[in-house]
Amino acid sequence: MTTTWNGWAAAAAVLDELYRPLADALLGTIPPGDARRILDVGCGTGATTIAAARRGHCVGVDISEPMVTAARERAGSTVEFVLADAQTHPFPAGAFDTVISRFGVMFFDNPRAAFGNLRRACVEGAALRFVVWRSAAENPFLRAAVPAARAVLPDLGERPTTGPGPYGLADPVSARQHLDSAGWADVVVRPLDVECRMPEADLEVYLTRIGPLAPALADADAETYTRVWDAVRPAYDRWVRDGEVHLPTACWLIEAEARPA
Ligand SMILES: C[S@@+](CC[C@H](N)C(=O)[O-])C[C@H]1O[C@@H](n2cnc3c(N)ncnc32)[C@H](O)[C@@H]1O
Fold this sequence. Notes:
CATH class: Alpha Beta
Radius of gyration: 18 Å
Structural class: alpha/beta
Order of helices and strands: HHHEHEHEEHEHHEHHHEE
Bound molecules: S-adenosylmethionine
Strand content: 25-35%
């Protein structure tokens, strides 16, 4: 997974712009009040952490050293970042009244234990708000690259569509069960369907630096890289119009409140 996250750090600017509407939707669910104590889980390079810091003191936690380094560099001293596994890190009990995440909570090996750990870090009534991918079938642009690239790299594997990974909380029934059993109440799971856009020129970074092609392309020679890109690019024609890529994202926006301990 580290290679993928390293690539993600390199592609941060493209991704932050692309997924800005999802960040806006997420931040719009933070309860009113401007002195909140916010934890951003799987914060990556810190776009949502920095944005959330306008509402109070925000701490970002991430397991990837390159991500946290990039986040610290861009945020300066205004925001705190912790390099740690959010599943097990001993956060101070009751330190937060809000937990947020954009695409950072689907990778837990043991979601129940992880969400229990986050619950212990919160006060009673704390707000949990996060955005996760719905199923692979509902997000075809996430799955179009690998089949196309197999024309050049026939052994290329696809990311699993169940278990820890991008689709780890795609099933709303099990997502709700994980939260219920980990001390979170009033769980609401809402579809969030947003068109995310980027300049066509950014599509290459998006497809080659993150996601399932990134590990295979990281060490590829120039000829292989070009052949893969030439094979993959046409698979995205259906989402390109007038110099822009229009990606119809299908996510869940999940809200819950910390139950009394
Ligand atoms: C898909 S990226 C999302 C990054 C960021 N939230 C964003 O929206 O740009 C997932 C992030 O979750 C982090 N992550 C995965 N498992 C984690 C864990 N157990 N504890 C903390 N961070 C984790 C990864 O390192 C990565 O930065």
